[in-house]
From TrEMBL:
InterPro entries referenced in this protein's UniProt entry, alphabetically: CysJ-like_FAD-binding, FAD-bd_FR_type, Flavoprot_Pyr_Nucl_cyt_Rdtase, Flavoprotein-like_sf, FNR_nucleotide-bd, NADPH_Cyt_P450_Rdtase_alpha, OxRdtase_FAD/NAD-bd, Riboflavin_synthase-like_b-brl
Keyword Transferase found: no
Alphabetized GO MF terms: oxidoreductase activity
Top-level taxonomy: Eukaryota, Viridiplantae, Streptophyta, Embryophyta, Tracheophyta
Protein name stated in the entry: FAD-binding FR-type domain-containing protein
A Pfam family per the record: FAD_binding_1
PROSITE patterns, per database record: FAD_FR
Alphabetically ordered keywords of this record: Cytoplasm, FAD, Flavoprotein, FMN, NADP, Oxidoreductase
UniProt cofactor(s): FAD; FMN
SUPFAM superfamilies: Ferredoxin reductase-like, C-terminal NADP-linked domain (SSF52343), Flavoproteins (SSF52218), Riboflavin synthase domain-like (SSF63380)
Every FAD-binding FR-type domain range: 123-365
CDD domains, A to Z: CyPoR_like (cd06207)
Naturally occurring in which organism (per UniProt): Populus trichocarpa (Western balsam poplar)
Amino acid sequence: MLWLQFVAKKLDRRISDLGATAVVERGLGDDQHPSGYEGALDPWMSSLWSMLYQINPKFFPNGPDFVISDTKLINQPKFQITYHEIDKVDLQSSSAPGLDHVQMQTGRARSMSPGKVSHIKNIPDCFLKMIKNQPLCRAGCGKDVRHFEFEFVSSIIEYGVGDVLEVLPGQDPAAVDAFLQCCNLNPESLITVHPIGMESRHRDAEGNDYKVPIKLKTFVELTMDIASASPRRYFFEVMSYFATAEHEKERLQYFASPEGRDDLYQYNQKERRTVLEVLEDFPSVQMPFEWLVQLVPPLKTRAFSISSSPSAHPNQVHLTVNVVSWTTPFKRKRTGLCSTWLAGLDPQDGVYIPAWFCKGSLPPPPPSIPLVLVGPGTGCAPFRGFVEERAIQDMSGSAAPIMLFFGCRNQENDFLYKDFWLSHAQNSGPLSIARGGGFYVAFSRDQPQKVYVQHKMREQSQRVWNLLVEGASIYVSGSSTKMPSDVMSALEEIISKEAGVSRETAVLQLRRLEKDGRYHVEAWS
């Protein structure tokens, strides 16, 4: 959206330079608005129509607010579904069990998905199998963080510490069945999906085969987020054309109108209502599958920081995952799709998990560089891999020390990887004070005054400064709310105090660290 705003500003400036006069003030969309980009678009469009009507009433003979309601005005769907007869399809490859079958079905479905990003992203880098599902928090404490271990069951992918693993989550079979039933779809139908106008082509520009059918249910399971993501406003507009109950049609038309935008936000976005829930609330609507394929949000991969070193765990990759759950304003329980699915997997079931590896924003440091790591909560995940890697590097020579600042609520409830950190802080380990490193924990709720990682950093001001003087790199990982800015503020204070310089000079020195590649932040909302 920022890139589109840049284009709009540049175009507006160029047209003004050529002597044009703006009819209305330039409008800029904001996809982060609670109501999506329509939150800025609707009032801008209204002002444009009103201004054009003032300039020349003939533009709108019935007035600028007149709305034409006609089902013929709806656009045609952008995708076509071709149904294939079972006896004319080679089912041998479609019914073979095992990993090969899962790989083929995943690649085939994702290549036909309207939400595909690229051909590379269609085919998973590999498939994983979970071998460990370990809770890290005390039962009943109100938090659920899991340590997951996976092993490669297809090709082994080389990755580095600081990299990111993307996982394609599975969907609740009961929700998928309810969606198919609600939409009156035959789960056993064999289909191919392709953009309108591509019917005569066997492959698209990226080599995806449109002519190899897949079961409709499999396509839904692997490509359409029917029970997690909320639909956009256009979904409600299209629904209104297929509603046969008049009261449902009126309500959907209202939701799709500028006047109903705020009520739609309360009903849909604020409650995180899912596609399945919306369809169940309007039972008279029977949308063609072509429209559902186009408008149901695509099933997206979820990204997690890798919490293992490949040197310490060959043929494995580990994750540290917060199992997300929350309550909506109307007291509806919601859970994160991927984290909840992973937490519910039993390693004994041997489920094949599609996965992709990506470079993260925390580059792996050379063994000779001291490190100052700040990772409260699950922000510690990549640093577990950093510490493992450095312990391995120690075996072939003396690697530089690590100073780690970790934070959690309570020592007894959510002290993630307690034994791991403490073991590496002893016996001249990478985190040991004897080596010049250190491990410091902020328990925010174990005393009346809340204590966070930035407070522990200030307590160790001189030791942090000593490592920076020795050429240390700083890595910060965790929530993007206040933590990154609070940590930066603490570092500014430390530099100002220990170097005896002004706060402004300390700010410039931190910027220099960023420019030199010695200050890295990985934050998420």
